[in-house]
Amino acid sequence: MTDEAARGRVPASVWALLAALFFSSFAVVGQITIVGKQVFDLTGDALDLGWLGLAEFIPIGVLAPFTGSLADRVDRRKVYAVALLLEAGVSSALYLYSESEPTSVLPIFGLVFVFGIARAIAAPASRALPIDLAPPEVLERVVALKSVVFYAGAITGPVAFGFAFVVDESLPYLLATGAFLIGMATLALVSGSPVRSEKALPCFQHSSVHSSGSTSPSDSE
Asked: Which of 9, 27, 62, 173 has a CB 3.0–4.6 Å from the CB of 179, allowing a cystine?
């Protein structure tokens, strides 16, 4: 038991993880909003928004069993960091394509498909890490904070990205790239080897550790 946990405080390492989860949620939801706007502006067809969602979520559904297994065998911090780096790469590519005065949505669909792969990698690791790192004394508080930071990012992301889009249509993708990289950098502050908490509540263990391959909206962190 750490001194911070004994006093009922969330350790600094967990706060660093929560910061990474916030920046990820901020960038993911904000970027999804802008990509949808850009696709609709290019085609004027609402059906393309459905194809866009399908391009993103097919990799998540198909890869979930494999990425969940990966997160159970490899340091989850490293898995999550690699996923954030891949997401940043996709955002950079979207920025470059947006700057080229695009006329086709096919490259966007392709990049969004790769982005879905990155999210499939990130989801199990990001979901289980708070359980790994939180001392049993503050576990319930950390799980609640995880939901708070996700929704904070999901709310502020579209707002910030919308203002960035008004300034320049390509700027939101730079903003997403920066947010993903900041999230990856904060993972370097997550010290110590992740330990699966045997004292965690059964419901948390089942949903967040042993079933880390499953996904939900908050998994996108």
From this structure: 27
